[in-house]
Each structure stands twice: as structure tokens, then as C-alpha cells.
Design goal:
6-stranded parallel β-sheet; 288 residues; binds ribose-5-phosphate; 29% helix; 8 helices; 27% strand; alpha/beta
Length: 288
């Protein structure tokens, strides 16, 4: 099977890792803006009869989606056998219901748009809360992989006496798995989100764990408010500065710096989104 990988801007490092692992070819593409800010793309490689892989993690998705769409359509026009999107972080998964009258379930709209122009999707830990699988909204074959085992391994190898803390009920699904594989105890808090940057988190019952290293584990770190709230409770409880581990380093605005400033000892993420905090390599999961 002939495989060719194209990196959308910002995804070059991960794409090279995948090319090496898969012994695939490196696709050449020109992506730029016309003077009027419209998107220009040109595929410079021969893709006829190839299985084409477009590598494009989808944080800040709105500017990425047009080049991705044009590239997928052009590859098919040029005779590609199939086009697969590798999006280690999948956007728009959190708007999975109507929270306020007048809103749309944009996760569904986004899924049907992506399904209309690629043949397959590969992703890591998509935010599945009110849905149990991607096939509820994606009409193309999807493959999702989980970073839990790699996070457990990182914790086992690097953190002494960890106490895992999941900041909300949704996190129990992955925190319990990470904890089991790391042979560590865990607790789950409850969270109420009042607004984009306004969350309250329940007070963690950690008295019996005061000789442990708190390790906060979450899937997405966006504004950082979930972690910052939890850190403030741990401080009051007299716990050691926590280590925060997230799968997806979205870090809206200055979230990374704000989490560190709030008292985290360290913030560690997987490389689903390129960031200085990346310490856990998920590239092996993507093609397995
Ligand atoms: C919640 O639904 C997610 O699992 C994360 O807890 C959430 O996305 C974190 O967001 P923020 O960093 O903005 O608090």
C-alpha cells in the first residue's frame, strides 16, 4: 500500500515521525494566502493511487479547516485512492448538547463536514462526554486511540507516591484507567462550569494522602481554570505543589503560564498539539 503524508502547517514534526515509522513518502504541498487572504493550495507530489494522510491537529480549528478541505478535495481530484485525516486533537467535541436556547450542537455539524471530504479519521482521546463513540456523529470510519497507558508509564517512571486527581466526573473514565496502570490511588472531584473562564470545583478530601504527590489528570487543558481551581484547594489542604498532566495542550491565551503561576510544580502534556510542555510521545498510537 503506497502511503504519502502531508503536514498541514505546524504539524511537520509529528508528520516526519509518522513517515519514519510507516516508511511512507513525504508529500510536498504549497499552502499560502492570496493577497486578499483567501487560501491557495497546490499539491506538488504525485498522489494517484496513493493512500494520502493529512496530518492536522485541530486546536484553533477555524483557520485550518479551509486548507484541509481544499487539500483533501484536490488529492481526490488528482486520483488519490483514499484520504485519511490524522487529527491528534479533534476540535468542537465539547459543544455536544444545547446548553442555552439558540445554540447548535456544533460537534455534530463539524463531524458531518469532516465526514463529507475525508474517507477516514484517526484521533487521540476525543472528548466523549455525552456520546459513547465517534460513530454517533461521524459517518466515516474513525479510529481513536487512548493516551492513558503512556500517561501511566510516565507517572510510574517519574513521580514518587502519586495521588491522581480527576477534576470532574467526566475525567473518571481516563483517570481511573491511568491510576490502575500506575498502581496509584485516585479521587474524582465534581465541577460546575458557570462560564468559559469561570468554574468551581469541589474540595478534595485528601487528608489521608498528605505524603503523596498530587497529580491532576485531564484530557483537555484549555483556559486552565479547571486546574487552577483545583490547585487552589490543594494549597489550602496543605498538599505539595501538584503536577498537572493533560492529553491536549490547547492552552487558550496565557493558560500555561497562569497554571504555573497558580502553584503547579510542573505541567506535562502529550504531543497531540505541539507545545513546550510535551513530554509524552503519542506518535506510536496513531498508526497502530
Ligand atoms: C471538560 O469538559 C474537560 O474534560 C476539561 O476539564 C476542560 O476542557 C478544561 O477546560 P479549562 O482548561 O478551560 O478549564
Amino acid at each position: 500500500m503506497k502511503k504519502i503524508f502531508f503536514a498541514l502547517p505546524g504539524n511537520e514534526k509529528l508528520t516526519l515521525q509518522l513517515i519514519q515509522k510507516e516508511k511512507g513518502e513525504q508529500g510536498q504541498v504549497e499552502i499560502r494566502r492570496f493577497p486578499d487572504d483567501e487560501t491557495y493550495i497546490r499539491i506538488l507530489s504525485d498522489v494517484r493511487d496513493y493512500n494520502v494522510f493529512l496530518v492536522c491537529t485541530l486546536h484553533k480549528p477555524d483557520n485550518k479547516i479551509v486548507p484541509l478541505f481544499f487539500l483533501a478535495k484536490t488529492a481526490k481530484e488528482m486520483g488519490a485512492k483514499s484520504v485519511c485525516l490524522i487529527a491528534p486533537y479533534l476540535a468542537y467535541m465539547r459543544q455536544d448538547t444545547i446548553f442555552k436556547l439558540g445554540e447548535g450542537v456544533t460537534s455534530t455539524y463539524f463531524a458531518s463536514f469532516i465526514s463529507s471530504f475525508v474517507n477516514r479519521l484517526i484521533t487521540i482521546d476525543p472528548h466523549l462526554h455525552r456520546r459513547s463513540s465517534l460513530s454517533e456523529i461521524y459517518t466515516i470510519p474513525t479510529k481513536m486511540r487512548h493516551a492513558a497507558a503512556l500517561i501511566s508509564l510516565y507517572i510510574k517512571n517519574n513521580i514518587k507516591k502519586p495521588l491522581l486527581i480527576g477534576p470532574d466526573m467526566e475525567s473518571e473514565q481516563w483517570v481511573s484507567e491511568v491510576a490502575k496502570n500506575a498502581n496509584a490511588p485516585y479521587i474524582i472531584l465534581t465541577k460546575i462550569r458557570h462560564g468559559d473562564r469561570n468554574v468551581t470545583v469541589s474540595i478534595p478530601q485528601v487528608e489521608q494522602y498528605n505524603d503523596h504527590t498530587p497529580v491532576l489528570v485531564d484530557d483537555i487543558i484549555s483556559t486552565g481554570r479547571t486546574l487552577i481551581e483545583t490547585i487552589s484547594h490543594l494549597k489550602i489542604a496543605g498538599m505539595q505543589p501538584p503536577i498537572c498532566i493533560g492529553v491536549h495542550a490547547v492552552f487558550a491565551g496565557n493558560a500555561y503560564q497562569e497554571i504555573l503561576k497558580s502553584g503547579a510544580k510542573e505541567v506535562i502534556t502529550c504531543n497531540t498539539i505541539l507545545h513546550q510542555s510535551n513530554k509524552i510521545d503519542i506518535s506510536d498510537l496513531l498508526m497502530s
